[in-house]
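Hey,
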Amino acid sequence: MADLDEIRRQVANKTYLLTGHASSRAAERAIRSYEIEEAIANCRVVEDYPNNENGPSCLLLGYTKNGRPLHIVVSYPPAIRVITIYQPSAEEWSGDFMTRKT
């Protein structure tokens, strides 16, 4: 399971990496770096991917200070990488954005 305290600490200290893919997706979706940091500050784990082929990671849900929900996939510590980011849609996710619709 992901160490949320460590993820939050590294993001708060700005010692994380935004991958090229995440940077492109954030730009396409008008998601600013401060919004990523705000969302991770109060995030919860939605899905855990300990056996991901690219290394252990997890999907987080957090909200910006303006209430914008964001799903953020991050790698486990020790080196936190934001892998991708998007605003979850009501068509694909339940009302609390914690459960995928089937």
